[in-house]
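To whoever picks this up:

The parser on our side crashed when reading a file containing two proteins. I've narrowed it down to the boundary between the first structure block and the second sequence. Both blocks are reproduced below exactly, byte for byte. First block:
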Amino acid sequence: MKQARIVLGVSGGIAAYKSCELVRLLVKAGIAVDVVMTEAATRFVGPATFQALSGRPVWTDLWDARDAKSMAHIELTRGAMAVLVAPASADFMAKVACGLADDLLSTLVLARRADCPLLMAPAMNVEMWQQASTRRNMRTLAGDGVRLLGPGSGDQACGETGDGRMLEAVELLGHVQALAAPKVLEGRRVLITAGPTEEPIDPVRVITNTSSGKMGYAVAQAAADAGATVCLVSGPTALPTPAGVTRIDVKTAHQMFEAVKAQVAGAEVFIAVAAVADYHVKQYSEKKLKKDERHPGLTLELAQNPDILAWVASQPGAPFCVGFAAESHDLLQNAEAKRKRKGIPLLVANQAQDAFGRDDNEITLIDDTGRHALPRGSKSSLARLLIAHIAELLPPT
């Protein structure tokens, strides 16, 4: 890490103060930081602050002629491990989504080489984040290969609460470090399931669960960062596809099962993170079921869904299988029983009430050598630890 360097872009927003701590952490980790600020960013934090923290000149002007032999918008990204824009304002995201380049930072982003990934940490008011135009720009950026980090949710400087908070500096540090992580799964093919499934009752109603898909998507990103070729079979979520990952969208458990069967050949690792519904409605109604005031009760007959993980694990020459157990009580006992019942080498256990929908988690890895408790952390950081543990258990190629 001591030779690594990134370009940190700072756009206008109150979250720019968090970028000061980010620079401090990056430098402490041995990563050189070249800071590029928009004019609006300088209204929140002065360039001198970033220069003092980074120990390097700060760039703010496209027409800066301090180095007559080169152009900053081209040279700064050459040899950089990545460009990270934090905070990325709604305006700056829109600008990049449209390919505009009217200041140093936007021009630098457009002029970077393909081998220099672009990461963005969105930060804006909750209403701005939820606007259709912002969501459209987010999808465009993700489709262009931009890795979106966050945003998080919580109290905002404007006094409102909701999505739009920039991730904390320590979380962004983890994402940067992941880029330079050892490629412990280089050349491996990994198949992952994530998200919930939806089992239809009638054309407008489904049986589902509260899984957000965040843990599965974090695992997919961590596996891709570790050099693996990753296929993600995902139930319905609102999450962007992880960078470098092939995604197959499904809805029902049976659709997920068919997708896994179609993709499992050649996979060396199968990680079943999805919260697959155990049952589906036996008699699907082609028409919407009407409420009958005379008979307020409704009886649904349920049939069991296929056990995808158990099926994969039972196949001849099965991949290295990893399961997840989300339990409401007796976590470790139930998880260990599940691992033995499925016949898999590794299982990840967590409390259901502490996992679904949250950005952080606390997990225990259970394998043939025993239990390995990991401290509470972001799902991204836990995913990287899980991938490292899997790599240690895999037979050599």
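<<boundary where parser fails>>
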Amino acid sequence: MVALNRKKLKDTRKKMNLTQEELAEQAGTTDRTIRYIENEKTTPLSGTLQKICQTLNLSVDSVIISQNGDENDV
């Protein structure tokens, strides 16, 4: 199972002045999915995560947390 830096996703969304609804629309998903990801209720499928990261101008690797708890360097 993949551990995500959900705070980074949420903080980046907010820095871009995007609501959960706006991010969802741009990433081709639902606001419920974004809400669940940010609140640790679900882990997104890889395709969904790729679209969210692309919308936020982040690499997928930059939001994946390694087994020892460190973020991957990309």
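After patching the parser it read the second block fine. The mean pLDDT is 90. DSSP finds four helices and two strands in the chain.
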